[in-house]
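During data preparation, we tokenized the protein backbone, and the record follows.
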Amino acid sequence: MTAHLHLRQDQVYPFDARGIAKRFRHAAIFGALDALNSGERMRFVNDHDPLPLLDQLRARYGDAVAIQYLQRNPGEIVIDFVRT
């Protein structure tokens, strides 16, 4: 088994929430964000704008995770979460 070494700070990790059961989504997202190193980003894709989730992220991480919308179209939302 090969371990991921996080050798590049500019690495982008895709996270498509549409394929995850709704009852597991927030826990999976928090786990993924907790695994990011400073400078890494998770590219989050969802079928709706996750405003309650963003409020939870701000409360949990504060300035440690930046939120950057890349696409805000109906049915397809793309957000980069950047670990600072």
Summary: The first strand starts at residue 12 and ends at 16. The first helix runs from residue 22 to 35.
